[in-house]
């Protein structure tokens, strides 16, 4: 799981569960055999297995339920998806056959059959099924094909090969959004030749569309042709001047190419508002261009005669970044009300702490905690902030004490419990971290964040790998495409010694999110499997993103990289 983020740091410092129902006895007796009620025992057993994180058992029970419930399309579909999530291709094939028999014309059946075929390396079957999907008259049927390609295949080369075959067959519909999405998918596959070909097709088909130029620039940059990419972006700047949406997209593209100054200059065109000011301030901060940021600050300040809460909040943030802490506090204290008032109060505390006025900072944060007129979320966040300040001061005992005090005011609050669990984990007190995460799960059994955090902690800090796997599996059922959960799943597979399977999952997590912890995990598995040159590349990627990442530092120390 990517590195735990402090809730208050993010807040303050950043610029179909199957329905079970019992029908009346008479109605059940009168129902035709083809519409029989779902068999209760295997469905219940399947749900209990899911809740316990035992996906292989859940796949077995749900297949039995689907086989016994003749004519039930939803149950056959659920059995198929659970078996695929469990990696049980045999049961997935059986369940899919039932689903197809009961709903033979469904596009989702075709797409799922293609996904299963790609997992087996059967590119021809996948191609045939996706051709049918893409040529369907149903609106947006292409999204089913896109999902199958994005999630299908244990070997990343297989969906890439199938996508190439679909381009050969001219199968992607003549729809700009479809071509853009398939183009982005090709870029994520990290297959330069395929990406070049795919983007070339998009450009050929939609030569006058500026948003296609942004996609082309991304592909050129990936291919090491940054200057060509920048030239393309420069060409569409005139079109962006009168189009706010395009201007924002162009700025994001420049920033992605490592050109924050060009991004800021694009945003400076046209009428300015709080949104453009905020984006420009962030880009100037990224460049560490304090002179330009000061000029922007003074320009906005001159327009701040009215007590606009959003404007004063933004000015406080800029002043805080410029280390003009007293001015920041004044702006924050001057926020008159509205939704911004609570954030301003907490930011004022943070600015006071940064300027060394720690006694006043703690006094104000305690006032927020004790003010019954303040929104409960803000009061709760005041405890999170105070714990963060104690962590920054190096007082881990006080950090835990603050969170415990917060839990006295807000018993069993999941955010406070989660934060305290992370504090215990940093202190290497895994049993207490586990206890707090389990308290969250008592109140919120399906809390994906707690399931994933506990599963990852057990996988990373203990030898209870099977238990960790079951917790992560529960999170996977809820959010199968969540990159943090995919990373946790890959990590526990590695800890179980299933290195090849782990590498597939970790690479997929990396394709979804460029996170330093994910990069460190991929690097470690590559290293232990003898692929040291590629491992070094991933360690370098992690260093660029966060040289102090805990997972990276532990991997480097452990492996002697």
TrEMBL record:
InterPro entries: CellSynth/LPSAsmb/PSIAsmb (IPR051012), TPR-like_helical_dom_sf (IPR011990), TPR_rpt (IPR019734). It comes from the Bacteria. TPR repeats lie at residues 516-549. The keyword Signal applies. Residues 1-22 form the signal peptide. Keywords: Repeat, Signal, TPR repeat. The keyword Signal applies. It holds the Pfam family TPR_16. This is Tetratricopeptide repeat protein. It comes from Stenotrophomonas capsici. The lineage of its organism: Bacteria, Pseudomonadati, Pseudomonadota, Gammaproteobacteria, Lysobacterales.
């Amino acid at each position: 799981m990517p590195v735990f983020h402090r809730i208050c740091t993010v807040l303050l410092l950043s610029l179909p569960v199957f329905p079970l129902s019992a029908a009346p006895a008479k109605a059940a007796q009168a129902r035709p055999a083809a519409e029989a009620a779902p068999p209760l025992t295997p469905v219940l057993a399947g749900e209990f297995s899911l809740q316990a994180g035992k996906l292989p058992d859940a796949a077995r029970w749900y297949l039995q339920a689907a086989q016994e419930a003749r004519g039930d399309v939803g149950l056959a579909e659920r059995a198929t998806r659970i078996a695929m999530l469990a990696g049980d291709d045999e049961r997935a094939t059986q369940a899919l056959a039932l689903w197809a028999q009961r709903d033979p014309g469904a596009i989702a059946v075709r797409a799922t059959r293609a996904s299963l075929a790609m997992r087996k390396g059967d590119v021809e079957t996948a191609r045939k099924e996706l051709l049918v999907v893409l040529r369907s008259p149903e609106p947006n049927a292409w999204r089913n094909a896109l999902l199958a390609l994005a999630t299908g295949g244990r070997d990343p080369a297989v969906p890439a090969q199938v996508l190439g075959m679909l381009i050969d067959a001219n199968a992607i519909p003549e729809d700009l959004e479809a071509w853009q999405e398939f183009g982005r998918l090709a870029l994520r596959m990290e297959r330069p030749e395929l990406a070049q070909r795919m983007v070339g097709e998009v450009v050929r088909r939609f030569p006058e569309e500026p948003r296609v130029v942004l996609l082309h620039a991304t592909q050129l940059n990936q291919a090491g042709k940054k200057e060509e990419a920048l030239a393309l972006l420069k060409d569409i700047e005139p079109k962006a001047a009168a189009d706010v949406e395009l201007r924002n997209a162009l700025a994001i593209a420049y920033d992605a190419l490592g050109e924050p100054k060009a991004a800021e200059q694009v945003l400076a065109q046209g009428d300015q508002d709080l949104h453009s000011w905020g984006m420009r301030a962030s880009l100037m901060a990224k460049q560490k261009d304090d002179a330009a940021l000061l000029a922007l600050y003074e320009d906005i300040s001159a327009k701040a005669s009215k007590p606009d809460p959003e404007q004063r909040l933004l000015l406080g943030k800029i002043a805080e970044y410029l280390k003009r802490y007293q001015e920041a506090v004044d702006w924050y204290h001057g926020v008159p009300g509205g939704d911004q008032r609570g954030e301003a109060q907490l930011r004022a505390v943070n600015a006071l702490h940064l300027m060394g006025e720690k006694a006043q900072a703690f006094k104000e944060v305690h006032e927020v905690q004790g003010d019954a007129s303040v929104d409960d979320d803000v009061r709760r966040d005041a405890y999170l902030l105070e714990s963060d300040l104690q962590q920054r001061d190096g007082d881990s005992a006080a950090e835990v004490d603050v969170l415990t005090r917060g839990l006295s005011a807000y018993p069993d609050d999941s955010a406070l419990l989660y934060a305290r669990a992370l504090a215990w984990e940093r202190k290497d007190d895994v049993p207490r971290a586990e206890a707090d995460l389990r308290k969250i799960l008592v109140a919120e059994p399906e809390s994906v964040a707690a399931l994933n955090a506990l599963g990852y902690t057990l996988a990373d800090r203990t030898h209870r790998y099977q238990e960790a796997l079951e917790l992560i599996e529960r999170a996977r059922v809820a959010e199968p495409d969540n990159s943090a959960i995919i990373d946790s799943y890959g990590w526990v597979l590695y800890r179980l010694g299933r290195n090849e399977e782990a590498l597939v999952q970790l690479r997929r997590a990396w394709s979804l999110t460029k996170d330093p912890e994910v990069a460190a995990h991929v690097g470690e598995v590559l290293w232990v499997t003898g692929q040291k040159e590629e491992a070094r590349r991933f360690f370098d990627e992690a260093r660029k993103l966060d040289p102090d990442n805990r997972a990276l530092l532990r991997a480097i120390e452990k492996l002697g990289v």
